[in-house]
Every structure is written in structure tokens, then in C-alpha cells.
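Quick one: structure for this chain?
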Amino acid sequence: MNWIQIRLTIDRSYVDELEELLFAQQALSTTCLDAEDNPILEPGVGETPLWDKVVVVALYEGTIDTKATQSKLEQADVWNHIYSSRWEVLEDKEWIRAWMEDYHPMQFGKRLWICPSWSEAPEKDAVNIFLDPGLAFGTGTHPTTALCLGWLDEHIQGGEDIIDYGCGSGVLAVAALKLGANSVLGIDYDPQAIIASRENAQRNDIAKERLKVVLPSDATKFKADGIVANILAETLKELAEELAEQVKLSGWIALSGILQPQAESLIALYSQWFNMNEPVIKGDWVLLSGLRK
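Got it. Here's what it folds into:
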């Protein structure tokens, strides 16, 4: 089966309107890409930033009538703001199969495996989580996620009530629960992360009452046995006092999303509340952990 996509370049202020139009014309999904060399490295808390000029890629089934769809798109007001457009044909073997071939079961620590849904678990008696790449961040392939998964595998003892701040796909929350945690409160600013976390919990037979996933504005304040936060360093700085206040005495915190040059300042900051451990390093990335004073 072939698939068809259209690539549209537009200013970021019109992206939402364009995506709404594309979905109205039967698009299966949309993806936003940087149209220029304008990286976004440290968005603020609660922000979902876009580049100044954005390429919006919309995917359609191969049977779509591109001429008729193009005509309908051109009738919309937002089309007047399009810089360029191009239709492309994608063969199934060029993307879905290649993607599946590149994503294999991965082991973290001694007990934990992350497996794609189409794969058999390599160790039937291990703690196996089935997770596919999707809309939200976190499958274990990024070093920061791998650091957190390995840390949870080593430190979850069973029965803990945990907060996963910036839960993304829910992989850390699901891992903690499968490793024996009692409950997890997942928090994320991205509504897509809320959806992905709930779907991945259901896929892994996690009872609804054990994982609650909410936006920060809906999060219940309580003293947790531990907090894991795989988010950007600048956000970890902004949230430091808030996170510390939600950890029980002698409870733990595990922080990642941190580049090596950023570690020293974060250790100094969090040392106000935690006895910090030696950093765990994977490539350019660092995991920091500590026990609440």
C-alpha cells in the first residue's frame, strides 16, 4: 500500500488553522518541522513552541484524490499564507517497515525490558513493557529515558507512591508500576502526553486507579516517596522548590534531561533539599539523584 503526504510551508501563527483544515480534508496525521535553521533548545514551563516558519506535513491514504483535495485546500483563507506546497508518494516499505526494523526490544538494568508491540519479549519472566513510538516523548531510545529506566530498575523496591513529572509517553510511570510501585501521578503540560500515557498504561494492563495522568493545573499535592522528572534543565531549575516540597523525608528524586555542563548548577540548587548522589552519565547526558533531607 502506498501513502501520500503533502508538505506545506507556513508562518507559525497559521499552523493551528492549517492543521484544522488538513484534518477536515481527511488527513490521518500532521507533523510540524523546522523550515529554517532556527533550533528551539530551552522552552519555558508550559510552552509548546514552534519555529517562526514551519513545514506542516500531512499524511493521507494512497487512495486520496490529490487534485480534489488540493482544490478544497486552496479555497480556504489560510491557503493565502502558504509559501510552498508539494505532494509526495511514500511506499509502505520505505517508512513503516524500516521503522519497525529499527526498533527492537531493549533491556534496562537487570529486570526491565521495553518491547515494541509487534515483538516477542526476549525474557518471558522479566518485567516487560510493550510500547511503540508515538506522539509523546519517551520510548527508551533517548539517553535521558534510558538513564531514568535504569535508575528505576535499580531503586524501585515495591509499594512506593511516585510522581512522574513530564510523563511524556508514560514509559517511566508504567515502568515504575510494573517494577512494583503502588501508584504513580503522571504530570505533563502536553495533552497528547496525557492521551499517550493512558493508552500505554492500558496496553500494559495497568489498572486505572494505579496511574492518574493530569495537567499541572489538575495535579493533587501530596508527599511522594519519590519523584522522577525527565525534562529540560531550565524547567528543573524553575520547579526545584515545588518538587522538593512534594518528596517525603528520606524520599528520593531522580532528574534527567540534563546535559553535562548543566549538572553542576543543578546539583548545587537541589542540594538545598537533598543529599545528592554522584551523577550517572550516558554520552552527553546526566541523571542526578538524591535523598530528601
